[in-house]
Amino acid sequence: MSERTTGEVVLAARNVAKSYGQVHALKGVNFDIHRGQVTTLFGENGAGKSTLMKILSGVIQPTTGQIVLDGQPVAFANANDARDRGISIIHQELSLAPNMSVRDNIFMGREIKGATGVDYAEEERQVRVLMEELEEEIDPLTPVEDLRLGQQQIVEIARALSVDSRILIMDEPTSALSASEVEVLFKVIRDLTARGVSIVYISHHLEEALTITDHAVVLRDGNMTAYAPRSEIDLDWIVRNMVGDNYDLGSPPETTVGNVALSIRNLSVPDMTGKDLVDGLNLDLRAGEIVCIYGLMGAGRTELLETVAGRLSASAGEIVLEGREISHLTIGDRIARGLALVPEDRQRDGLVQTMSVGQNLSLASIGRFTRGLFTSRRDERQLIDDSIRQVTVKTAGGHAPIGSLSGGNQQKVVIGKILATQPRVIMLDEPSRGIDIGAKAEVFRLLAEGARQGLAVIYSTSEVSECLSIAHRIIVMHKGRISAEFDSSVSKEKIMAASGESVAA
Ligand SMILES: Nc1ncnc2c1ncn2[C@@H]1O[C@H](COP(=O)(O)OP(=O)(O)OP(=O)(O)O)[C@@H](O)[C@H]1O
Ligand SMILES: [Mg+2]
After folding, report:
1. How far is the CA of 409 from the centre of ligand 2 (A)?
2. Which of 84, 137, 406, 464 is the most buried (most CB within 10 A)?
């Protein structure tokens, strides 16, 4: 108990429960936030982490139970109300207006007023200070949609920091950040806690999260199942309490490698200014083979995969799928030929938010159920049920709206949807981001099974350990080129060194 009392309790949930119809997202949780400490919340997808945080930050109201702030019961009318009392939240799903500037996003709804209206110059100055603190070169006037995903996440973080909160809730803030950006964020977190700010942190990146954790809390099925200070826990403790078991992500599957399924030849992809993001890249991928592309954010991995999928245009080179040049084909035609991409920004690119879980799952494979003019409802339902089971989506059923799923479960739907198209070549761009360790093991199992049946897989990741447990071959990308290639017996350090990453002790 000693560590529990080091920092006084500033905010607490008392018997807080939240139900959505029949779904009991939280079942009477007691949770304390201590002054000047980092409390990290672990749990599987759908465990109730975001729900609890939304309640503490006034975004939603509990069905029963109470919030206690500085010893006094409070009821927040909305997020602004909570923010006025010093509680801010960085949401798991980005909530920025894409066509507005960084500055306007940060000050939206609380503009700085000068003598003659909004004081844009002062706003701009403050954004520059924040960006400096976050060591990010982002111009305040850039429209958010021109930033890469990780930078958009930085803008979210900057917005929360600009409020000067006592309690800052971060729901998976690092999912799209590079290793060095994470380091900067952690430095900022340490500065904040030193000044007495309390942080609540949520992440599926367990090892990373442990490095800043003072207290770990595990949620499971809407209950708080474990609570301990950092000194008493390790990775095993977290996983055991999260899922009741230990997961081994295993080693690359044994498969028979077949013919070249995908051949990328001299491919170049320019950015808006004409600079090459992918620079004359060559890569052959064989049937039954799992190739991991490792690299830092900005190495050109996403641009490479999106160009092969037909979302971006190349300035030079060829893309050959099973012997046929496909550069001229539309995205849809490439999918029809068996080439599929699980995109990086799944929230925006992968899902139709107004549709149900089932509709989203079957959308891409609709051709398979069409006989003449009619779709076979039974086949479609079968596919939906299979997909939900395969990728372990936690949902009330296929009819549930996609927005009712937890963040990680929405991502699993995207992966399930793509697998259901029965591709011959599948490209996954950071697929494990935001999904829990059990689901990650499940995705690995599905890919291994696919490879045994001849599926060719490109798996892009910024986690070295993932490469080592899934890939037959590891390609390192650096500045748009392949900087090294290894088989699966390589060491972690060698891979990181080839990516241009400084390998710390
Ligand atoms: N608006 C909603 N309507 C119906 N059910 C909901 C809604 N929001 C959340 N849920 C359900 O509540 C449960 C908890 O969801 P929550 O988003 O809190 O999970 P989480 O722990 O944050 O998961 P993840 O790691 O995937 O982000 C899930 O079963 C989810 O489907
Ligand atoms: Mg969540």
Report:
1. 9
2. 406
